[in-house]
Amino acid sequence: MTPRGRRSLRFACLAVTVLIMCNTITHMFGDVRPFDWLMLVIEVLVLLAILWFEGRELWHRRKLRKRVASIVPFMEKGKQIQENVPESQSELDGKPAVAWMQSVTSWVAETDEFLLSHSRRASFAFMLIGDTNSFGGLVYLPNGYSFPVCGDVRLHYERLYYQLNNLRSIMEKPDVYF
């Protein structure tokens, strides 16, 4: 059953329980029997159970939305680092390349530390580097420009590429990881 169907079923149960409780309460103003008190107690317990289960689900979904929102800055920072990859040969051999590789390493460490503080499963998924043969060594920028990368910059770019994909997957399926 889908979450929406479960929610509709719980709402229907809640509505029926409230209606039955109203009926029992109206009987309480007339001829009260011990059975009426028992029915009222049972109905209150059913109502509390429905509210408990629905409340827990709402709380969990709210918590997941907050977690995903807290991951967004890491994703944005990673995309920014990805777009600032050194492109010319002079940049690949000099200080810009070293600074860029250090920014990749620090981004990976910060993101992993954040994920680890919330979920070991998310941290493991983030750090997993999958099939590296699918990366062709070309960098595609948002403006349509592409260029090859090589050496240590390629290794760092490849790692950044896969870990951004892992982070996107975590954001798309937070209920699996948190």
In short:
By secondary structure, the chain is mainly alpha-helical. Helices cover 78% and strands 3% of the residues. Helix 1 packs antiparallel against helix 2 and helix 5 packs antiparallel against helix 6 (151-172).
Structure description:
With 178 residues, this protein is mainly α. It has one domain. It has seven helices and two strands. The protein has a two-stranded antiparallel ribbon with strand order 1-2. A hairpin with a 5-residue loop joins strand 1 and strand 2. The longest helix is centred in the N-terminal third of the chain and has 50 residues, at 34-83. The two termini are 22 Å apart. The model has no long low-confidence stretch (mean pLDDT 86).
Termini separation comes to 22 Å
Counting structural domains, the number is 1
Form type: rod-shaped
**Helical amount:** over 70%
Show unreliable segments: none
Please tally the helical runs, counting DSSP H or I stretches of 4 or more residues.
7
Topology of this structure?
Blueprint: H1 3-28, H2 34-83, H3 89-93, H4 95-118, H5 120-127, E1 138-140, E2 146-148, H6 151-172, H7 174-177
Fill in the keyword field for this structure.
7 helices; about 5% strand; about 180 residues; rod-shaped; two-stranded antiparallel ribbon; mainly alpha; single chain
